[in-house]
C-alpha cells in the first residue's frame, strides 16, 4: 500500500482567501430559498467531479489491499454512496472479469454520530461502534461529510483504535478552516471551506435545505428562523419546506 498524502483543493488558498461564494442568481436556486441563503459556495457539478477524483486517489493508494469503508451517518450517507460508486467503477476496470472481486475487496460498516443542534456542537453520541470488532487487523476507511472542530472525529478515531485495525484513514468532503479546530486532519480532503454553516447536497440545517443542488451558505436570519426551540424540540418556523 502506498504512503498517503492529503489530497486537498483549498477554497481558502491565497487567491481565494476572501472568497464569499458565487451569487445565487448564477444558479438555479428555488425562489422560496433565496432569502435564506447568502451565496453558493460549491456548485453541484464541481462537488461531483471532486468526489470522482477522491475515489481515484483512494483506489490508487489501496491498490490490491482490501478495506472496510465506514460510513458516518447520517450526513455522510450521500457522499459515501457517490464515493463508493466511483471506487467500484475504477475497480471494475482494473479487475474486469473477476465477478467476486468487489465483494471480497470492499466491506461496509455504518456508525451514527450526533453532535449538532442548530449550529452548535453538543455532546457526542455514537451508536454502532460496539459492533465493529470485525475491524481488528483490517484496513479501515472512514467516510465523513464535514469536519468542523475535529472533536467528533478525534474521539471516534480514539474509539476505533480500541479495535486494533491494520490501518485507519479518513476521507472528508469538506473541512472548515477555523482557529479553534483540533490538530486533526483527514488523509483525503475534498474542500477546505470558510467557517460558515453550509446546506445543500445533503448538508442540512435542522433537516432543512438538504436537497438543494449546490452547497450554499445559509444566512444568519435563516438559522434563527429554523432554529430548534429546546423547550419543545420543534423549529421556530411555522411551516417546514422539503428543501
From TrEMBL:
Q: What terms describe the molecular function in GO for this protein?
A: hypoxanthine phosphoribosyltransferase activity; magnesium ion binding
Give any single GO term for biological process: guanine salvage
Which segments cross the bilayer? none
Q: Which Gene3D superfamilies match?
A: 3.40.50.2020
A Pfam family per the record: Pribosyltran
Residue ranges of domain Phosphoribosyltransferase in the record: 47-205
- Source organism, top-level taxon: Eukaryota
Tell me which InterPro entries the record gives: HGPRT, PRTase-like, PRTase_dom
One GO cellular component this record assigns the protein to is: cytosol
Key words, A-Z: Glycosyltransferase, Transferase
Q: What is this protein called?
A: Hypoxanthine-guanine phosphoribosyltransferase-like protein
List the lineage, top down: Eukaryota, Metazoa, Ecdysozoa, Arthropoda, Chelicerata
Amino acid at each position: 500500500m502506498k504512503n498517503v498524502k492529503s489530497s486537498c483543493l483549498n477554497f481558502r488558498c491565497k487567491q481565494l482567501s476572501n472568497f464569499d461564494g458565487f451569487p445565487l442568481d448564477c444558479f438555479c436556486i428555488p425562489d422560496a430559498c433565496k432569502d435564506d441563503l447568502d451565496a453558493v459556495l460549491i456548485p453541484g457539478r464541481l462537488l461531483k467531479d471532486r468526489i470522482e477524483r477522491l475515489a481515484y486517489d483512494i483506489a490508487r493508494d489501496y491498490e490490491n489491499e482490501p478495506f472496510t469503508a465506514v460510513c458516518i451517518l447520517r450526513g455522510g450517507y450521500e457522499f459515501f454512496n457517490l464515493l463508493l460508486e466511483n471506487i467500484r467503477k475504477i475497480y471494475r476496470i482494473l479487475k474486469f472479469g473477476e465477478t467476486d472481486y468487489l465483494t471480497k475487496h470492499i466491506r461496509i460498516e455504518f456508525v451514527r454520530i450526533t453532535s449538532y443542534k442548530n449550529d452548535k456542537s453538543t455532546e457526542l453520541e455514537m451508536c454502532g461502534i460496539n459492533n465493529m470488532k470485525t475491524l481488528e487487523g483490517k484496513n479501515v476507511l472512514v467516510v465523513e461529510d464535514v469536519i468542523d472542530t475535529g472533536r467528533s472525529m478525534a474521539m471516534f478515531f480514539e474509539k476505533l483504535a480500541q479495535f486494533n485495525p491494520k490501518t485507519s484513514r479518513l476521507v472528508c468532503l469538506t473541512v472548515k478552516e477555523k482557529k479553534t479546530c483540533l490538530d486533526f486532519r483527514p488523509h483525503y480532503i475534498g474542500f477546505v471551506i470558510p467557517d460558515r454553516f453550509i446546506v445543500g447536497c445533503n448538508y442540512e440545517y435542522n433537516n432543512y435545505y438538504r436537497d438543494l443542488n449546490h452547497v450554499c451558505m445559509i444566512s444568519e436570519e435563516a438559522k434563527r428562523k429554523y432554529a430548534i426551540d429546546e423547550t419543545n424540540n420543534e423549529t421556530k418556523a411555522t411551516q417546514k419546506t422539503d428543501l
